[in-house]
Design a protein that fits this description.
By secondary structure, the protein is an alpha+beta fold. The chain has 3 helices and 8 strands.
Length: about 170
């Protein structure tokens, strides 16, 4: 996801990049999600604004992961706006510590990969769900309660576990 600054003319440079599953796996090795069959795309424009370069784009497409409740596949629709200003590392006024939307670059190439990675990581919820009303797994038999209503009595499960604690004999202190 690199763009040469000498290819960015006065009219800007269209950005149309497919974000592949291989790229996501390499950029986000601990992320247990991957782009869906239709893939992720980054579409927008990279414009020269004085000495800086402005990326205005949208990252869009499905991501597939595992539902935190029922362990079935969960699909998340991403539609993430991206607006980042790239400033040459040689510029005197380049101070990216103050503004998170300012990113420095070196040489004649701008790499938007880090910004795409950050947006993906921020968009994936900690506990993704296949649907908002997912019933999850039965705590007794482990069945998927979205597919079959099991006959387990969940209120008896804690008492069975606590019954084992009642059998423990603790030494008495004198």
């Amino acid at each position: 996801m690199r763009f040469k600054i000498n290819e960015i003319g006065t009219e800007g440079l269209p950005v149309n990049v497919t974000v592949t599953a291989d790229w996501v796996a390499a950029a986000c090795p601990d992320l247990e999600a991957r782009p869906g069959p239709s893939g992720l795309t980054l579409r927008g424009r990279l414009d020269k604004t004085g000495d800086d370069y402005l990326l205005r784009a949208e990252l869009r497409g499905p991501m597939e992961t595992t539902c935190a409740r029922c362990l079935e596949p969960a699909r998340l629709a991403l539609q993430l706006p991206l607006a980042v200003t790239f400033v040459s590392a040689d510029a005197d006024d380049a101070d990216d510590d103050e503004d998170p939307d300012l990113v420095t670059f070196e040489g004649g190439e701008i790499d938007v990969g880090d910004e795409v990675r950050d947006e993906i990581l921020l968009a994936i919820p900690i506990n993704p769900l296949c649907k908002t009303d997912c019933l999850g797994l039965c705590g007794v038999c482990g069945g998927n309660r979205n597919l079959v209503a099991c006959g387990c009595r969940t209120e008896t499960a804690p008492s069975v576990r606590l019954a084992a604690l009642a059998k423990i004999k603790l030494p008495t202190q004198h």
